[in-house]
UniProtKB/TrEMBL annotation:
Biological process (GO), any one: lysine biosynthetic process via diaminopimelate
Transmembrane segments: none
Residue intervals of the Aspartate/homoserine dehydrogenase NAD-binding domain: 33-167
Keywords carried by this UniProt record: Amino-acid biosynthesis, Kinase, Methionine biosynthesis, NADP, Oxidoreductase, Threonine biosynthesis, Transferase
Native source species: Cochleicola gelatinilyticus
EC number: 1.1.1.3
Keyword tRNA processing (UniProt): no
InterPro entries xrefs: Asp/hSer_DH_NAD-bd (IPR005106), Bifunc_Aspkin/hSer_DH (IPR011147), HDH_cat (IPR001342), NAD(P)-bd_dom_sf (IPR036291)
Enzyme class: oxidoreductase
Protein name: homoserine dehydrogenase
UniProt xrefs under Gene3D superfamilies: Dihydrodipicolinate Reductase, domain 2 (3.30.360.10), NAD(P)-binding Rossmann-like Domain (3.40.50.720)
GO molecular function: homoserine dehydrogenase activity; kinase activity; NADP binding
Pfam families linked to this entry: Homoserine_dh, NAD_binding_3
Length: 384
């Protein structure tokens, strides 16, 4: 119960109630990962803080900010100076430090946000939920490791009456996951989802197909713009698009594992091993093979890297998941894509041959952070 109310019940004659404060709901947020997306998210929350407080009576307090080595805690909410403040913290922390801090300060309305790309970090989801946190994630790993993890997490969420939102897992800030979820829940039979799922590879092939720039130059540009995964090989080997396909398949309650996806890996064999740093020094190895792929197309065609979920989607194990490079007419829907736009064509029984099309920026820190922020607000509205 609100502490002011408790005080009022104990001392009914004392006028303690601040009506403004009673109206306000405080949300306690812990943000893990402060790179491109996480950093922008914190800035966006700070920029909108006052307006959200005044117009929606929500007090968004970021009480914890963490990267892989430093943790910043502040029960009043970390300030706009957080970038300097976090590096001034001692190196090394554990998740328990965050859980203990939240517990000792009796925070409720807790949200933990995973803006890492870390495989290990998702192991924190269960302990977070058991300690009262709802989850928001731009990290796709939690939804794309084994089905056992996927199902157990949902059981734990349901047992503890917590939620997990991850709209940015597919299509960055585009309203894709929620649309698919609602169509499916309402009984609409989705028969195929196809398109350019990767914002970074969209940017890469849109620019490479049109201009005279070398593949390696455009790739470096996409990396510099923050469109790629922290390790760009995750995009180029097809894993990132594969994960997005799998996330959508699982929204349709299909029982697929990552190993079911047929993926065309775009990375030349000699660049597949070694460190990320080695890889970044050898981007020129992409130039000849991709020059040939571009040159050997039919006239008026362009390259696009697509994801395709099709088959008998009414059966748990009936789906075909495919990720591949294709050459399409420049004047087709896929061929006309610009910038870092993704495009998703959603085919279903009611919509027949005219799919629902969702298109827009599919990568970038600004739009992704905005999508994560949207999930935070959605959750905040549901919390007490
Ligand atoms: N960029 C985009 O357009 C989109 C990105 N996403 C997803 O957003 C996520 C973040 O991407 P992006 O911001 O570009 O990545 P960055 O590499 O810029 O940032 C990653 C952050 O995660 C931190 N981190 C890594 N491991 C841990 C850990 N175990 N605990 C706490 N923090 C950790 C890193 O800290 P440190 O610096 O100490 O290593 C860094 O602050 C990814 O999962 C990506 O797939 C989703 C949609 C679009
Ligand atoms: N690397 C991803 C970023 C968002 O998920 C992409 O290129 O789409």
């Amino acid at each position: 119960m609100n502490s002011i109310l408790v005080e009022k019940i104990k001392n009914p004659n004392v006028s303690l109630i601040d009506l403004e404060q009673l109206k306000t709901k405080t949300i306690y947020i812990a943000i893990f990962g402060v790179g491109n997306v996480g950093g922008r998210l914190i800035d966006q929350i700070h920029a909108s803080y006052r307006e959200i407080l005044e117009r929606r009576d929500l007090d968004l307090k970021i009480f914890a900010i963490a990267n892989s080595s430093h943790l910043l805690l502040d029960k009043e909410g970390c300030s706009e100076n957080w970038r300097d403040a976090i590096i001034a913290q001692k190196v090394g922390y554990t998740l328990q430090d965050v859980l203990t801090y939240a517990q000792e300060n009796e925070f409720d309305n807790l949200i933990a946000i995973d803006n890492t790309a870390d495989v290990e970090f998702v192991l924190n989801y269960e302990p977070l939920v058991k300690s009262g946190f709802s989850l928001v994630s731009s990290n796709k790993i939690g939804n794309t490791i084994g089905l056992d993890f996927y199902r157990n997490l949902r059981k734990t969420l349901s047992k503890h009456k917590k939620e997990y939102l991850y709209e940015t897992n597919v299509g960055a800030g585009l309203p894709l996951v929620d649309t698919i979820k609602l169509l499916h829940l309402s009984g609409e039979n989705i028969t195929r989802i196809k398109g350019v799922f990767s914002g970074s590879l969209s940017y890469l092939f849109n620019r490479f197909s049109e201009g005279n720039k070398l593949f390696s130059e455009v790739l470096q540009d996409a990396i510099n713009k923050g469109y790629t995964e922290p390790d760009a090989r995750e995009d180029l080997c097809g894993n990132d698009v594969g994960r997005k396909l799998l996330i959508l398949a699982r929204e349709l309650e299909l029982h697929n594992e990552f190993s079911d996806i047929q993926i065309e890996n775009l990375i030349p064999k000699q660049l597949r091993q070694g460190t990320k740093e080695d890889f970044l020094l050898q981007l020129k190895d992409f130039d000849v093979p991709f020059h040939l792929k571009k040159k050997n197309q039919k006239k008026g065609h362009v390259l696009r890297y697509i994801g395709d979920l099709r088959g008998d989607l009414s059966k748990n194990d009936g789906a075909i998941l495919e990720v591949k490079l294709v050459s399409v007419p420049r004047n087709s829907m896929l061929g006309q894509l610009k910038g870092s736009d993704s495009i998703f064509e959603i085919y279903s029984e009611s919509y027949g041959d005219n799919p629902i099309v969702i298109q827009g920026a599919g990568a970038g820190a600004e739009v992704t952070a905005r999508g994560v922020f949207g999930d935070v607000l959605r959750l905040s509205n549901k919390l007490n």
